[in-house]
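Allow me, if you will, to draw on your knowledge of protein folds for a short while. I have a record of one protein: its chain in single-letter code and its fold written as discrete structure tokens. I remain grateful for any guidance, and I place the record below:
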Amino acid sequence: MIKLKQRFFMEIEKILEDNERFKLLILKHLEIEKGNYTHIATIYQLTGLSKFKLDKLLLELTTELLAFPENPKIIVDNEGLVEVKNLNLNIVKQIRLNYFENSITFQLLKDMLTTQTSLESFSNEYYLSRSQLYVKRKKIKTFFNDFGIKIKKNLFIGDEMTIRNVLFSILYDVYNGMKFPFSEHERSLISISIKHYEHWFNLKMTNVEKVKLRIFIGVAFCRVKRGNLIKTSLLNSQKIYQEPAWQKYIERMNEFTQLKKDYSLNELDYVAIYIFLNMDDSFSSDLAANIEKLPFSEADNFTQEVSNQLFSNLKFNNSMKEKIYDFTRIFKKSNRNRFFFDFAVNSFKSDRSIRFFVETYPYITSLIINAIETNTTKYIDKSNVCRNQLVCDCIFILFSLFPIETLERPVCVCVDFTFGKYYNEFIAKQINGFKHFNLFIVDRLTADTDIYISDCNIDHSTISQIIWKNPPTADDWEDFGNKIVEIKNKYHS
């Protein structure tokens, strides 16, 4: 039975050395706070490091940043204020990848997937003593143990699909499209495989979809080549694979993997299910019909109950019924994928990710959170990571199908400045940059006005007023954003 499991936060950075983990922690914090000054005391508190240790790591980071053409810098002034210049998320990711590629522990993990060198040969290659090697191996064992996977004699032992899910999650998280994690020979084979699937299923993939599919197939090839197979028959697909194009492809794969034919069909099914559940383009074939027959009942029940609860609180007219059906269909596919593959992704995992939606769309987000939390206990273990990702799935699907004004009441903003019509229009155009807040801009006060923005006060008015400078400053815009959040919370509290 396929069941949606608790989704683990992929803390792959645990296997890095302490210095690298701390440097990443510092870099991520500074990148998030760039544009603001951070006091060195905040970083002491964040890391728990001594002054000597932190100074040493900041010096190392300063040196590492010299390699980037953007000329990123970390500057600490005499008063302990830390400023970063020209630092962006791409640089942080590149440094992170460098740390992994220079990590002997990570190289050992990759070796366990791709090469399976003997421990003795590996220790000789990296000039490690037996005790040093076993310390690094223990880090990997501890990490995989959280997923119910054991490591014995340098082999992954456990449910094969879970092993592949975790390995895929690690490689996608670490490499993230910046570099290809497999050998040139494997790259060639993966390219052949992808071209076949693109042609057979008429796929039109985005760059990210291609990156993910390459890693997914690469992990599958590495596991299969070493005799780790999907042994359960997933689909009744023997007839489909009798087609000449499929037969030619199977022969090619058998040459590489040295598999028996009956096993290779299971592997083909495995990739086909991934494509069907992960690609926006649903391919039309007998395979798709077979995939629909898989035991997805728990995923489908969860989807339907969340959908029913959500739309019972949203009052739509009959013309919206088709879109409600579309929401349920798309969310069902997303949850089927989550139930089947259960990748440990890092996107939209944190409470910080949800905070944006809670502040910007308080009403609809609270409905979604409630619907998911009500039903997760029946089908999945409660975890913030899982809940947050499900919430984001719902939000993105809803907003792609329904106009925002049908989901939440717009905030009415009156713009009325001394400089007159054209200055008002100038300000209104800038306010439209906040369109994700669902704003309705007018030039006259009405009973529906929520916020009055001007350089002139209204006497004895109960309407929320914001008095701006001409032109408005960054502080003025911040006050405006805070006021919108306040108004939205008032309406939906």
